[in-house]
Structure of diguanylate cyclase:
Amino acid sequence: MRASYMGLCGLVVAASLAYQPANIVWWAFTAVSALVWPHIAYLHSCRQADPFQSEYLNCLIDALIVGCWVALMQWSLLPSICILAISMSDRSYLGLKQRWLPFVGALLAGMGLMAALVQPEAQWLAPLGVQISLLPLVILHTAYTSRSTRRMLKTLAKQNLQLKLLGRIDPLTTVYSRDYWWKMARTALRQHHIRQEQTSLLVIDIDHFKRINDEYGHIVGDEVLKLIGLNIRQCLRSHDIAGRYGGDEFTVLCKNAKAEDAYFVALRIRDKLAQIRLREYPKLRISASIGVAAADDSFESVATWIKAADTALYSAKDAGRDQIIDAGPSSHIPNSPATIPMPASKTSLNPVAQEQPVKDDLTY
Ligand SMILES: Nc1nc2c(ncn2[C@@H]2O[C@H](COP(=O)(O)OP(=O)(O)OP(=O)(O)O)[C@@H](O)[C@H]2O)c(=O)[nH]1
């Protein structure tokens, strides 16, 4: 950007010099400052640990040069104002607008220095040739700036979208964040109220998770939570939505699912979590208690719905943990959960029968 800006400005200064009896020194100064300086500035910035700071210094030198050019052009109003305006707008474009005072100082210093050396006669009106030489600067600079702005806006929009998506995901467990999950649950409950769509939710709490933290440390605890998130996601149907409710508690919204269907999702999750193994800690075992609650017309809010599932979860904890308990048909009435009758093949619900064979692909 500097190379093109300084180069095009140099063209205007050269056009102005062509109308004056300028000596070789001013031609050389114009050529070096317009064509060589931008590359020196670039190399200087690249070699510095803090490019912003070195760019600040470069911009001060730019301003000094621009000040010199204004005096060299015999204060011609049109080219001087164009070059100054573009120079100042570039400074703010680079994010240096907070430090405008040193730039103005450098500009004035450049003007004063060159005025003392050249003692130019004021030529307020620029000759036609100089005015024409301004065209490439104005046109190309405007095009370049608008292209860069368009690019920046595109990047910004992309990053905003990424931020929005990231905000929906719990970074540790990679399931949805509580807020986003809650929003989805609210929509599902509304759809149940309007269209009687069947939806159920699971509240999953890891049993004795504190012990894992205490015994193996919080880093391992985090690793376990990460694996739990991953494994829960692997058990979901395509339209189920898992979220992290907080700490070691997860929620799953099972869309188009009666309590019985959600129960099987819960069963899959519970069995899958029981198979998690960590290579470094082969004795570490995970079990989860799960409360299931189908959406009910009497649930006015997600909070009531979750409360029903939570009540079932507490019953699972009370019943010895590693259990799945459905809140039952009257789930909105607290403390009235009913254990779903288990199919004969699902005897693994018995906590005693939980020891699963180690599967290599589940060892992390
Ligand atoms: N490593 C880790 N631990 C967490 C995180 N969030 C919460 N915890 C811990 O998870 C534990 C949750 O404990 P509780 O749910 O109260 O109890 P519990 O030990 O799981 O026992 P029960 O739920 O009664 O089976 C606490 O010790 C928290 O410090 C986290 O992000 N990382």
